[in-house]
Specification:
The structure is a homodimer of 245-residue chains. Helix content of chain A is 46%, strand content 13%. By secondary structure, chain A is of the alpha+beta class. In chain A, strands 1-2-4-3 form a four-stranded antiparallel sheet, sandwiched between helices. The longest helix of chain A has 24 residues, at 104-127. Chains A, B: Residues 10-165 form the Nitroreductase domain.
Chain lengths: 245, 245
């Protein structure tokens, strides 16, 4: 196994950071790495908002559900879909995009582009010895976050990323077995593998909590999925000009 | 700059591969790296279909617009959103998910999860000296691809990834300037940076084609965005049980 795969396999989310800001060079190096990811037909349909203003970080932390590590970290990025740039490009080219940006396909392209860029950013940060945590919580109050960052139409804040010098060690929680997510040639029945994973996760919690928790993955994930629905998302996405057709 | 960031910055899509298959160990190592990416609340909402059957690769290549490298490569993966797994998990937990999987939020979670996993796979492959190319073309005929891979409800083929030993060198096409995608504290007007980029891209083509091509990014991207609309996407996504609410 090479050093890079070792880094990838060793990933864990970091939720407590030292009080030590990233340097401008680090901040930009991470953005450059993000930009180097693949992008659908060279469309580069994302923007990255870097939050250096402490007051803005405080507000974001409050909107994301009062997670301290949104405010206290080495730097905070917000990854956004961005097809606004392409409206401007069309104006520059003297062309009319018509309804083309309204299609679900374009929304998917922008979400995928933003996510590929973000994962490169995460790996770049970890390669420098920094820790990261994705913050989906900014979607709890996505409209307020969007207003706070003054995002125009066709720019949606997808998730944040807290980056910094790790101030705690966190355990590697076992992922689904490879056989549960990997299918050969066609989609296969994986119920057996999910049952096996339920036992793995239950044993993991049991050991870490000395018997206080023994919940299975299927229970945990069912509770999670019926929890934070963020029912406003479709209206917000459509109002921003995405996925209308 | 460390070796890992160097690898990230050096990424380019590879569209011609040697006739040399990946080993089982390589195939699985890449999947394990994909699995190690962050996942929203541990939901792991994706599946990876590995295509080893040559006939299936031929069919996929035809459906993706006759790109030879979909058929001829070291291995071919299809990355899918997967919330079907979570219906099964709910049954295992004896719980009812109600309409919770119908929400746009859950679709976004699944698309992001699949994309983060895929980018880890891409980096793992490149770290082994392999090349990769994302294949959005499988969305041209997404319903037929879905049928070919026997994907159930709530499983959508997002994109393919051709992996293999590179049989050509490809140039690094300049990305948008950092200042065009990176905003500080709030969304900023980037028209100047886009104009600058137009000149960069025009000069790039001019040099590579000895003056035969001088198109600007804004022209190129406008043509692209009004081109492959894949207008069937919203109906397909909804029919698969996603983003209905």
């Amino acid at each position: 196994m090479n050093e890079i795969i070792e880094l990838l396999l060793n990933h864990r989310s970091i939720r407590k950071f030292e009080d030590k800001p990233l340097s401008k060079e680090q901040i930009e190096q991470i953005v450059r790495a993000a930009q180097a990811a693949s992008t659908s037909s060279f469309v580069q349909a994302y923007s990255i908002i870097g939050i250096s203003d402490p007051e803005k970080k405080r507000e974001l932390a409050a909107l994301a559900g009062n997670q301290a590590y949104v405010e206290h970290n080495g730097y905070f990025y917000v990854f956004c879909t961005d097809l606004n740039r392409h409206s401007i490009a069309a104006d520059m080219a003297g062309k009319d995009l018509g309804e083309s940006l309204d299609f679900m396909e374009k929304f998917m392209v922008a979400v995928i582009d933003a996510a590929l860029a973000a994962q490169n950013a995460a790996i770049a940060a970890e390669s420098m010895g920094l820790g990261i945590c994705y913050i989906g919580g900014i979607r709890n109050e996505i409209e307020k976050v969007s207003d706070l960052l003054k995002l125009p139409d066709r720019v949606i804040p997808l998730f944040g990323m807290a980056v910094g010098y790790p101030a705690h060690e966190s355990a590697l929680k076992p992922r689904l077995p490879l056989e549960a997510v990997f299918h050969e040639n066609e989609y296969e029945d994986k119920e057996e593998q999910l049952k096996e994973y339920d036992e793995t996760i239950s044993a993991y919690y049991n050991e870490r909590t000395k018997g206080k928790r023994t919940d299975r993955w299927s229970e945990q994930i069912t509770a999670m999925l019926t929890g934070k629905q963020r029912e406003h998302m479709k209206d917000f996405v459509n109002a921003k000009g995405y996925a209308k057709k």
